[in-house]
Every structure is written in C-alpha cells, then in structure tokens.
Amino acid sequence: MNPDEARKAASEILSQRKYRATTTPRPFRGILDKLGEWLHPITEAAQRAFAWLAARLPGGRASVWSILGGLVIVAAAGFALWLARRRARVTVTSATRLRGEAGLDPAALERAAETAEAAGDLEDALRLRFRAGLLRLDRAKVIAFRESVTSHEVAVRLRSPAFEHLARDFDEVVYGRREPRPEDIAAARSEWVQVLEEAGAS
Amino acid sequence: MKWRWLALAAGVVIAVNLVTGILGYLYGSPTGPTSSSYATTPEGAGALAELLGRGGHVVSQLRAPLADADLDLGATLVVLDPNSIDRRGEEALKRFVENGGWLVGGGNDPEWLSGVVDGLPTWTPDGEERVSEGQAPEIGEVRSVETAGSGSWLGTGSGSAVIGDPERPLAIKAVQGSGTALLVADVSPLQNRLLDRADNAAFALTLVDPQRTDVVFAEAEHGYRTGSGLTALPSGWKWFLFGLFVATIAWMLAKGRRLGPPEEATRPLPPPRIVYVHALAATLARTERRRRPR
User: Which is nearest to B173 in space by CA: B109, B115, B120, B94?
Assistant: First the structure.
C-alpha cells in the first residue's frame, strides 16, 4: 500500500461514526450558558476557597471532598428529619381538623355562650357553657372528654354537689325540654367556677 | 402557585439537558484508553488496528498480562503507551525480542523499554511536528510524518534511526538477539487523531513486519482483562451494580413491614363507628337513670 492509498484507507476508517463525537441536542443551551456566566464569580470563589482549604488540610483535596461529603450527608439527614416532622404535623393537624377539635376551645365556647345569652337564646347559652366546663375539666385531666360522655359519668368522677346541680339543670333543659330560665344561666356561670375550683381545674 | 410553575419549568429544563447529556456521553462520544487498539478517541489506536487489517494482517488483542502470556514469536507485538509494565513484563518482552519476535513499542516517557532493549537512547518530550528527513530503507516511500511534537529519542543508542534526524529520531530500530524492536518516541502519528495526515498511515504499515501476518496489540496494559461473568465487568459497572443492590435493599426495607407478625391473625375490619356506639351507650345510660326513682 503506497502512502496515498494508505492515507485514503485511514481517512475512510476515521470517517466512521464511531470515531466522531456526536452532538446531542441541548435545549436552552443559551440560557444555561448565560446562567453559567452569571454564576461564574460564585463558582470561582468556591474553587478558590476549596483550593485554599485543601492547601491547609492534611490530605489535601481528598480531605476537603470527604468533609464536603459529610456535610452533604448531615444536611440531607437534617432535611429528611425536618420534612418528616413537618408532614407528621400536617397529618396531625388535618386529622384534628377532621375530628372537629378545632372548635373545642373553652374560652371560645364561653364567648359564644355570652353572645347566645345576650341574644336571648338561653338553651344555647346553657349548652355552650356546660360544654366549656367539661372541656376545662378535660384539659385539667380530671375527666376524659368525648362527645358521648354522660353527666352521670362526670358526676361519679367529681362527686360534687355543685356539678350535680348543674347537670340536673342541663338534663332538664336539654333532654327534658324544660324552658330555660335566667337563673339557670346565672347558676351555670357561678357554679361552674366552683366546680372547676373543687376539681383543681381553674 | 407561580413559583410552583417556575420550579416545574426549571426542573424540565434540567431534566432534558441531563438526559441528552447522558445520552451524548454514553452513545455520542468515542471512548477508550490512550493508544489502545479498542479506542476510538483521538488518542486511541482503533483506526491503526483497522488499517493493519486492511493491509492484509490478522489483528488480534492480547488481554493477558505480558508476564503471563504465551507470546507468539511469529507475530508482530504492538505495545503502545502501556499504563504500567512490571519487571516480569519487561523480561517477557525482552525474551520475546531476543528469541525472534518483532516488537513495535513506544509512547510517552517509555521508561519500561529500557528493561526490554539494551542500549536504549534517552527519551525527551520535545519533538518535531513534521519529520521528513533521515528515512531508512525500511519505510519505503514514506517521506513525511506529522506528529504532535511530544517526543523524540536523543540519538539512536544501540539501534539505528528509522525516520528523523539521527540526533533526534522519531523512531529507531534495534536488533537484539534474533528479533527486532521498532521503538517510536512519539506515537501520535499512529493514533486516530493523526493517522490520515501526511504519510502517517504508510509509516504505521511499515512498522509492522510484512512477513508476519499476525499483529497482536497488548491490551491488558490498557486495563483490559480476560474474564467471564462478573470479573469481565469494568469496575465502574461493578460499583453501579453494587449501588443498585444497596438501593434495592433500602427500598425493600422502606416498603416492607418493619415490626409485627408477617401476616395478620385476623382479617382487618373497617373501623368501628365509635360515635354511634358512644351515642347509643349514652342513650341507654340515660334511660337507665330515668327508670330509677330519685
């Protein structure tokens, strides 16, 4: 094979696709290049910091990479923990909301009772104040409040004449359909204070 | 919501570029070690192997280390830019040449050749980019060789210049025992990047003994090995598989049941309607109270 033939053969071989780099499409290359230009000062500073640190640490670049790797692992673990706690909190909050416990605020109920009383709705005022009292007992861990808790259960737990009076009035009005009187409301206001004090929940 | 769309768009841009980048890396770029007959990179020698095949030679690759291989004295052995050759490898090459073999060797900083050829001249990283003088009869019609200018011999040592100024030849020929060693100080003319320039292709063909049909490229020294099964996999692939295995175990642990029996003792029932149960209990309790005389 003379030099010309050999050169031609070599050219044919080298013209095969496997010897040439294929450029794949790079969408948004211009934007990314621009972004790279903007970030260049930051990356340059980071490189300088890296080199500065590598020059001062035993082990050089390997040590710096090890430290960076450790920091990434710690950061990832911290983020995972934060995310897990956040999700757990969201789940608890939404579950609480679903159970309707957001409205179980004694103070809010008492305010609602005042409003109902002012509006002349004495039964509602009595119901709301009774519920607020039970919730305060629950918060003081004297009773375990639930929607279906009975006056009898609470009376057995408290053994309080004041509560028995309150419960009797409540049952008569709510279940016995007796017309509520302003004295019932006044008694509820004063006797609940007494009940809570006796139970150590005030 | 606006930020969510912006983040989504940025994510799509990054993902598309990442995928095309990976595809380009895997399928679009030539690969292989420097001066390897498998390599299609500019610094590879894949085209040289193909050219020798077109020139009538039977080209093969030796994937066993030189020290352990049974070197065929009837073949031309090509050893270019080896990663490393130990003492046993150098001795094996020396025996190969002395016993009648034909060796084509060279590359950057070819210290290893001093253990193969006696009286090897000093190598220097400086070289001419166009070598067109001092042609020996062996290279026939070759008049000019283009190089990267990255090496030459300082003199000819125990050999004779093949091409180039005898004071700074590009290649020398050393006869040792009953064999021959052609030593190239700068192998860039044999690499893909320059093989089709000047008379480089013809020069490459003349380095190989025309009387010997077989040409064997030493590839174990470029990292290739004989092997089967897992041992044949490159270490990068092995690490990838190991990572995949670890990820699978982690996924199984995350998805699997962590505590408790493997199977429930009873069929899981829907949750009880606790509110209804409590309401009914309350009603019953009140009913009982009202029956009682106070």
Answer: B120
